[in-house]
Specification:
Elements lengths: L5 E11 L5 E9 L2 E6 H9 L10 E3 L7 E3 L2 E3 L3 E3 L2 E6 L2 E6 L4 E6 L9 E9 L9 E8 L1 E7 L6 E7 L9 E6 L9 E8 L2 E6 L2 E7 L13 E6 L17 E9 L5 H7 L4
Length: 273
């Protein structure tokens, strides 16, 4: 067998990649053949990894059970508020959240990372976007807040709200998008991601909003903090008098990831090809 030697050369110059990140260019010299690559190409390769290779930290299928599968084992809700049934929807069996003020409460510590992550879920609303009501879908409440909800009071918007650790709860940032074209009974895939300096919101596999701020503060997640799924009411972060949701929502395949998934990975979860 012929012995093969490899030498590595990295240029001192730097070249900006498409995202604005500086990446050194390197050369591998192997035997008589030279292979060129950059750290950007490796990053693009990593970004193309299927979402199936990413294990969710928290996964509640809601096919016929309240059980959530987490990295620490199966988890049952710590509390249930309101009537619940499992009903067949457009995307299979799902949890039907009765309204108003109807939710499941789980502990967040084993399934949520404050510094980076993704929430993904399917919903089938039995309401229209112009009903003037709040509809809460998901909320983390601890030292900071994550909140995914449909706004009431005449604004037909889906909002992803974040309050950072140590901040008063009346100080927050929001990424939002219009859902004025939604119709009752239509299924939708929703996702939101967070990481240092960046929040993103996705509907049906498409990125519909983002907020970029290097000073962005994110929540601090501690064991035992509250994670709500459904129409949870909380003064200041929930429904207001006369605006609470009065129609049901089907929820299925609720997931939390410890990484901010890529646009391609979220499109895969949404079934977009």
């Amino acid at each position: 067998m012929k012995k093969m030697t490899t030498r590595v050369f990295c240029e001192s110059a730097y070249h900006g990649d498409a995202s604005g990140t500086l990446a050194p260019s390197c050369t591998f010299e192997t035997h008589s053949k030279t292979l060129h690559f950059s750290f950007l190409s490796l990053a693009l390769l990593a970004a193309s990894v299927s979402v199936r290779a990413q294990e969710p930290l928290f996964h509640a299928p809601f096919d016929n059970s309240f059980t959530a599968h987490t990295v620490s084992g199966d988890l049952e809700p710590a509390a249930k508020q309101g009537p619940y049934i499992f009903e067949k929807g457009a995307f299979g069996n799902a949890l039907k959240v009765g309204a108003p003020d109807s939710y499941l409460l789980y502990t967040a510590g084993s399934g949520l990372h404050g510094e980076e992550g993704t929430v993904s879920l399917w919903i089938q609303p039995e309401w229209t976007a112009d009903d003037g009501k709040f509809h809460m879908l998901w909320m983390f409440l601890g030292d900071g807040v994550f909140n995914l909800y449909k706004f009431g009071g005449g604004e037909n918007k889906l909002n992803f709200l974040v309050t950072g650790r140590g901040q008063p709860r009346d100080q927050f940032v929001i990424v939002s998008t219009s859902i004025a074209t939604w119709e009752a009974g239509g299924p939708h895939h929703l996702a939101a991601t967070w990481q240092a300096g960046l929040l993103q919101l996705f509907v049906d596999g498409e990125r519909v909003g983002e907020l970029s701020d290097p000073k962005l503060l994110l929540p601090d997640v501690r064991p035992g903090d509250a994670l709500f799924i459904g129409d949870y009411y909380h003064p200041g972060y929930g429904t207001q008098a006369g605006l609470s949701g009065n129609a049901d929502t089907l929820i299925r395949d609720f997931r939390l990831y410890g990484k901010a998934l890529t646009t391609a990975q979220i499109a895969e979860l949404a079934g977009v090809k």
